[in-house]
Q: What sequence folds into this?
């Protein structure tokens, strides 16, 4: 179904479910999300801030993480390995021209 046909209420419900899922799955590291899908929680926060136009990046990140980003990072973010960083770099290169 094309995005233009999607009901805004359904999209909002699905989006809130995605946020809850990402907040629950703290084991899913951003670097791994970037490596596999070319986007992560920070990207999602950036998209929220851009779409809203009034939110700062920090405010949008708090929406995505369910807490201040610095707190989430201290509790849940592991140091990225060189392999993870290389996979992320290759994946991000595939994003060129996608948005």
A:
């Amino acid at each position: 179904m094309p995005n233009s046909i999607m009901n805004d209420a359904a999209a909002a419900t699905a989006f809130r479910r995605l946020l809850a899922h990402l907040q629950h799955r703290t084991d899913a590291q951003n670097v791994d999300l970037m490596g596999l899908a070319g986007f992560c929680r920070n990207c999602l926060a950036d998209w929220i801030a851009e779409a809203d136009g009034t939110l700062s990046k920090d405010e949008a990140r708090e929406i995505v993480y369910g807490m201040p980003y610095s707190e989430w990072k201290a509790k849940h973010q592991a140091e990225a390995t060189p392999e993870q960083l290389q996979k992320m770099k290759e994946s991000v290169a595939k994003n060129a021209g996608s948005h």
User: Anything to note?
Assistant: Residues 8-24 form the longest helix (17 residues).
